[in-house]
Amino acid sequence: MASPGNLSRRDSRVDLLRGIALLTIFVDHVPGNLLGNLTFRNFGFSDAAELFVVLAGFSSMMAYGGCFERNGTVPGLRRIGARCLRIYLVQMGLLAATLAIIWLWDQRFGLDTAVIQPILDRGMRSGMTRGLILEALPAYLDILPLYVVLIGIFPLVYLLMRWNPVVALALSGGIWLATNLDPELNLPNTVYARLWFLDPFAWQFLFTIGIGMAMVMRRRDGRLPIVPGLRIAAWVYLAFALLVAAPWRIWGLWDVQLLAVPMTDKTILAPLRLMNILAFVYLALTSDGLRALAARPLVAPIIACGKHSLEVFAIGTILSLIGRLLFETFGTPLSLQLIVNGVGFTALFWVGWVLEIGRTAPQPAPHLPEIRPGV
User: How many structural domains are present in the chain?
Assistant: First the structure.
């Protein structure tokens, strides 16, 4: 088994991929954004949400698994509890900010408030109360609640994975399969008369797989085993997904659907989506090219975003909301698109850079009182 020091060592490739996922989420959350035609969701069945969750499992194992092994159960649980509380508070802040921004924008421009109308209809106090218990999840505010649940179940998953990884993955996969057979196995989003958009009973499987990958990689000096046949299968599957799912008509290449496949339900993490993200991640983490790219200074701003994912995600969520409102109010001319994307990327890179500078800055030595002879 790897030492605790190796277990907790950051992998810049994971931070790079997570930074790319965060930038992609910002773009995808602004409907009408031309850059949205070039993000992950256009090249296969999955999108940045799947990438973010599988990397969350990987990073959780590196951070909290190491804490359990180095410091014991109680400090590990305390650290996980603190992280869950922080994510929860950010979610509440985003909910309050979303309600306030949309309401104020509606007062000024008279826009449709359908996205928050169910909360307003129940009264702001009742709506916020439902939000406090994660029963009011407006569109685009459904990732952090899932994250809270996943981090919260980490100790149980970690315990099972340490005991028997095969059993842990089988149990997790069984729950995922049950949600695919019965999509009603979900948590309620009562204010909107529906269920959680990202079903935690399904998505926990991807999180658990990420934990399993981290356990394998820590025993192999940060590398996944390279299986030639598996790599070929992954490439073939991604080529199939590209052929079927890419928006060829939007790209102006051709207007023929070569193959028809069943709908890939994101809520229950349908099998085609699951296989898509696993193929992509396996190829990425067995690629020497990605390792070399992650070492280049050019991508340091993206890696910084990945290292501070919660803060970057929160700022990106607010900026994408403002971008959506701007597009709904003033249309989507190229000039406004350049402003929205330019300001958004600059702000996210700046947040990541500032937080990374603060994290790596040397701490001042504690001041010790001067000791004088005879005193």
Answer: 1
